[in-house]
Amino acid sequence: MIVLVTGGARSGKSTFAQEYISKIGNKIVYIATAIPFDDGMKYRIKKHRDSRPKEWKTIEMYKSFEKLESNIDFLNSDSILFECMTLMVSNLLLEENIENADYETIENIEKKIFFEVKKIIEIMKKYNKNLIIVTNEVGMGIVPSYKLGNIFRDIAGRINQYLAKEADEVYITIAGIPLKLKG
Asked: Keywords on this record (predicted)?
């Protein structure tokens, strides 16, 4: 089963996703895509880590998901909580020189990011894992005034559409309340 959980910042996505996976999974692995690049992110990562049950295994990665196929914790799990897709997209975009890229180059970068997203789905299906994906809803805010922000919003929006199509269930959280959109 694939479940997509989306919503705005501090909307309750993570709490809902953790509660949901706790009901369907016995051996849970948390795939963390965040990179602790500053004190603020380090603090957020610590808070997320502290909020998870101690028996859950954590795998820190945001690309090269084929490596999961040799990861014992992944292989022994039945359910995966993937958090967060939009952080993964950010990390992959920041590896590139976007500001000086033409739109053909940006299109190729988007294809590389989609490759990673499709690899996640493919591996989860191959190993019959429950997958809960947390992502941010990025299309309801102000249009970014800078190139990288626009590119991020567009790619993340298209990835969210793809994931929603692939998902068995889709939820959006608003003010801590999950609303079921699909399934």
From this structure: ATP-binding, Cobalamin biosynthesis, GTP-binding, Kinase, Nucleotide-binding, Nucleotidyltransferase, Transferase
d(CA 112, CA 109): 5
Name the DSSP class of 175.
Answer: T
- What is the separation of C-alpha 133 from the centre of its chain, rounded to a whole number of angstroms? 5
Q: Give the global pTM.
A: 0.93
| pLDDT 10s digits, 98-149 | 888 898 999 999 999 999 999 999 999 999 999 999 999 998 878 888 888 8
Q: Compute the Cα dihedral for 168, 163, 125, 132 and give only its sign.
A: negative
Q: Which of 48, 63, 118, 119 is catalytic?
A: 48
Q: Where are the domains of the chain?
A: 2-182
- The closest alpha carbon to 137, from 116, 112, 161, 114, belongs to 161
**CATH of the structural domain 2-182, one choice from 3.40.50.300, 3.40.50.1380, 3.30.360.10, 3.40.190.10:** 3.40.50.300
- Our answer to whether residue 59 is catalytic in this structure is no
Please, where are the H alpha helices in the chain?
13-24, 39-51, 72-76, 85-94, 103-126, 147-166
For residues 163 and 4, the answer to whether their CB atoms sit within 8 Å is yes
User: First-to-last CA distance in the chain?
Assistant: 11
Helix (H, G, I), strand (E, B) or coil at 16: helix
